[in-house]
Amino acid sequence: MSKDNDYQNVRRFARLPISYRVQYKELYNRIDTSSLRSSKLKNFSPGGLQFSSSKPGKPADLVAAAQKYFTATYPKEKVLQVTVAGNWFVAKQNIFGQPIQWGLPIYCASQQSEPGICRVFKSSVLTGTGLGIAKAPPFTDHWTSDSYRMLNSNLK
To answer: Are 118 and 148 in the same domain?
Structure first.
């Protein structure tokens, strides 16, 4: 099936006028493939995101603040581990496009009713709301986008 698709694509390309084929080849040659090869997730490690000095907050401080927030929000669940999953993003803007709330994506593993199994939440913890709000704790709310079950032994 792959050979058939390749053959059809070659036939389509051959039917194009010469000027289009030249433009296509020039455009194709200008694509910088080095940036595509270097776009791997280099910043992620099993313990969370490794921040450069230009990013606000230290990962350990952010993890501790997120763990404190989830422990206070869900007192019946035991928070096992929290890790930062990405960089700060704008959660809300005012009508002028200025950020008024920031979010930080995290993973939060918590023990629930099943022994030996935890639920991992893919969430974003949110700062307070206001113009000029800092990208820093305390967190006032969260958004949960997904969750899944995992063995406690898989937590590192």
So the answer is: yes
Q: Please tell me the pTM assigned to this model.
A: 0.64
CA atoms within 13 A on the CB side of 12: 7
Task: From first to last of the 156 residues of the chain, give the pLDDT tens digit.
Answer: 455 555 566 666 667 676 666 666 666 566 554 444 443 333 334 344 444 434 577 888 999 999 999 999 999 889 999 999 989 999 999 999 999 999 999 999 999 888 888 889 999 999 999 999 999 999 999 999 888 888 888 887
Rounded CA-CA distance 65/90 in Å is: 19
Q: Indicate if 136 and 74 belong to the same structural domain.
A: yes
- Residue 143's domain comprises 44-154
Do 29 and 96 share a domain, yes or no?
A: no
